[in-house]
Write a structure and sequence with these properties.
It is built from 13 helices and 14 strands. The protein is α/β, with parallel strands linked by helices. The chain has a domain of about 180 residues: Rossmann fold. It has a seven-stranded parallel β-sheet with strand order 5-2-1-9-10-13-14, with helices on both faces. α1 packs parallel to α2, α4 runs antiparallel to α5 and α7 packs parallel to α9. It is globular and about 60 Å long. The two termini are about 15 Å apart. It binds guanosine-5'-diphosphate and calcium ion. The site of guanosine-5'-diphosphate has 23 residues, from α1 and α2.
């Protein structure tokens, strides 16, 4: 079965691990968010693509959910000794190598999609990992700091400020002019199933959908489109997704996120069992809906979520 998944970082990667285990023979294409990308120390860093690549390739720091396992931070501390920051972004020595290879290939003229393929030659994630676009897109967040409205990079908002101040606007800078990367629209057109994993609906999946043509391709595919709620019991399971939902006026509930995606996009939506009372509401919005456990506590739990998504797809097909 040809499955396409629109993924952010941790939520997307953990779900994908479950999906691979649930349907080992599936042909899986992942369209990854690149709105979180940032240039640091002259290097191009793609946090969400790397989280997917390391998680599926066995190189992830399991406790953290991002970055490399068995990491050391000699380069970062040497940079700090030169007074060169930022210090708030955790780049380890092993991870640095990935960004050096990526930056070198980009400088040589390869598009990000080709670079990602080359990096995946090493990691063998067992899926085809495509960036949403080869063009530069960077999510920026409008916040009030020291009584002034400022626009900062998403990573500064998320990692340095830990989303501790209200986000007033979220702008995927460059998205409007971006083109889907080679293979993205083709994969969506050929898909037999499209999945929205429990990734951040605004700054992960929302950014992917903001690339002109992608939302339309998901909405018009003949395949069922099934989403899994990243909101459980009125809160994001990990992270600060509620802050970016508030910025666009969406309540942090499983039903509100489904409505935000819309029934033009989604055919089915899975909510956690603690949100079972949302099921009639989602169904009233003309989507199939079921309540199943949605906590990715281990591989088996994530695989069970993937199986539930496949079952719901069977219902709407
Ligand atoms: P990021 O790019 O690393 O922030 O990762 P994603 O955008 O892919 O996923 C982040 C989202 O995953 C968070 O907003 C959480 O709501 C959601 N999430 C994380 N762990 C779980 C889980 O175990 N179950 C569910 N349902 N959602 C989760
Ligand atoms: Ca991310």
């Amino acid at each position: 079965m040809r499955i396409v998944v629109l993924a952010g970082g941790i939520g997307g990667a953990r779900f994908l691990r479950g999906l691979k285990s649930a349907v080992p023979d599936a042909d899986i294409t992942v369209i990854g968010n690149t709105g979180d990308d940032i240039h640091l120390f002259g290097l191009k860093v793609c946090p969400d693509l790397d989280t997917v690549m390391y998680t599926l390739g066995g190189g992830i720091n399991e406790e953290q959910g991002w970055g490399r396992a068995e990491e050391s931070f000699a380069v970062k501390s040497e940079l700090a000794a030169y007074g060169v920051g930022p210090e708030w972004f955790g780049l380890g020595d092993r991870d640095f190598a990935t960004h050096i290879v990526r930056t070198q290939m980009l400088a040589a003229g390869y598009p990000l999609s080709a670079v990602t393929e080359a990096l995946c030659d090493r990691w063998k994630p067992g899926v085809r990992l495509l960036p949403m676009t080869d063009d530069r897109v960077e999510t920026h967040i409008a916040v009030d700091l020291d009584g002034q409205r400022r626009v900062i990079h998403f990573q500064e908002y998320w990692v340095r400020l830990r989303a501790s101040v209200a986000a007033h606007a979220i702008v995927p800078v460059g998205a409007e002019e971006a083109k889907p990367a080679p293979g993205v629209l083709e994969a969506l057109a050929d898909a037999e199933l499209v999945l929205l994993p429990p990734s951040n609906p605004i700054v992960s999946v929302g950014t992917i959908l903001a690339v002109p043509g992608i939302r339309e391709a998901v909405a018009s595919t003949s395949a069922p489109v099934i989403g899994l709620s990243p909101i459980v019991g009125g809160a994001p399971v990990r992270g600060m997704a509620d802050k970016v939902l508030a910025a666009v006026g969406v309540e942090a509930t499983a039903a509100a996120v489904a409505a935000h995606y819309g029934s033009d996009l989604l055919d089915g939506w899975l909510v956690d069992t603690v949100d079972a009372d949302a099921v009639p509401k989602v169904r009233a919005g003309s989507m199939a809906c079921r309540a199943v456990p949605l906590m990715m506590t281990d591989l088996e739990a994530s695989a069970a979520m993937a199986r539930a998504a496949l079952e719901l797809a069977g219902e709407v097909r």
